[in-house]
Amino acid sequence: MQFKYIKNIADDNSEATILLYNQIGSSVDENGNITYGIDGSYFAYEMQYLQDKCSKINVRINSIGGNVMDGYSIISSILNSAIPVDTYVDGLAASIAGVIAMCGKKVYMMDYGTLMLHNPSGGSDKAVLNLVKDTLVTVLKNRTSQDEDTISKMMDVETWLDAKTAKEKGMVDVIVSSGKKIKMNTSESLYNMALIYNKLINPKKQMNLITNKLGLDENSSEEIVVSKISELKNSLEEMQAENERIKSELAAKEAELTTIEAEKEAHKLASIEEMVNSFNVKEEDKAATIELAKVNFEAVKNMLSKQSVKEPVKVFDFKNVVTKKGSEDRSSWTIRDWEKKDAKGLEVIRNSSPETYENMYNEFYKKQK
Asked: What per-residue confidence (pLDDT) applies to 367?
């Protein structure tokens, strides 16, 4: 069964706890937005359910108050309960929540708690408001040691009471020691006061969020939680160190890959240049041809292969010149010697090896200049 306000039921059904940790009833702010609080009729329904299950009910309160009509339903369900109902002021019990707190068979209040009573408000019909106040005064008179006139005056001036004062006025039976020192500033808004008290009331709930996140049992000690956090911190540091090592290895591999790629590019360029130089490609066209070959080597090679392959330069053997008298070494002859002594042989050189002839010509005549 889904409960809205029942916190827990003891395994032996000896008692149950139900919470008033919100505003009483719903309200509408100045922007027309509805803020949903504790539904009085639903609270009464859960109270009735508990009466059939348990032998005692604890109602724990930390509320700014709110709608009196919902408050009436809650007050009635407590006062008319077939089993004992104790109330606990765990933080703030203000306005109608303060009246509800006084309805317990026994009223407990945390030593840092705050109780506030004031006149009902809302609506323009003073007669109705006075009637509501009278009913609340009656409830408080019957549940405390204060008389009607004293209670009425307390409500008129909006009275704030700490635990000690509330007990002195017979409004609280037992002050529960917390071991905590806190002085609440009543100039705070009721909403902020309730939030501050919630932090005091629910430290275990906040710890449960931590233990759940850490994967620990909710009853784990503080030492176990700290140990787990240290373990996770050490694990994180190890992972960070491993990450740095992997990053370093990756950087080394990338550098190695860059070197390999550079070598491959250099080898590819050498192969391209060798291929281009093996064909009759004009000097002014070589750079463009090489760039094309980088993109598509085979296509450029096929294109050039359709042209004539560049013939290798013929080297004239001057040490073994064949003459009528036999082989003769003319490696020391200049072009001028050839012109004077063997003009026909020079013509043969010119026709068979133009490069050799050009070199001889330049070697001799350009030096003469």
From this structure: 72
Look at residue 345 and tell me whether its pLDDT is greater than 80.
yes
Residue type, 295: V
CATH for 6-201?
3.90.226.10
Bridging pattern class, strands 57-63 and 16-20 = parallel
Q: How far is CA 60 from CA 322, 331, 340, in A?
A: 128, 122, 133
Q: Give residue 306's pLDDT band: very low, low, confident or very high (50, 70, 90).
A: confident
Residue-level pLDDT at 102 = 94
- Domain positions in the chain are 6-201, 234-305, 318-368
Distance in angstroms (rounded) separating the CA atoms of residues 129 and 120: 6
Over 90: is that where the pLDDT of 187 sits?
A: no
Q: Is 145:170 a contact under the CB 8 Å cutoff?
A: yes
Around 145, how many Cα atoms within 13 Å sit in the side-chain half-sphere?
10
Cβ atoms of 363 and 338 closer than 8 Å = no
Is residue 198 pLDDT above 70, yes or no? Answer: no
Q: Which helix (H) or strand (E) holds 59?
A: strand 57-63
Helix or strand holding residue 63 (H, E): strand 57-63
One-letter amino acid for residue 41 of the chain: S
- Lookup: tokens for 80: 């008319």
DSSP 66: B
Which of residues 314 and 358 earns the better pLDDT score? 358
Query: In which residue are the tokens 């306000």 written?
Result: 5
Report the C-alpha gap between 49 and 77 in whole angstroms.
11
Token pair 């160190």: residue = 241
| pTM for the predicted model, two decimal places | 0.54
CB atoms within 10 A of CB 148: 12
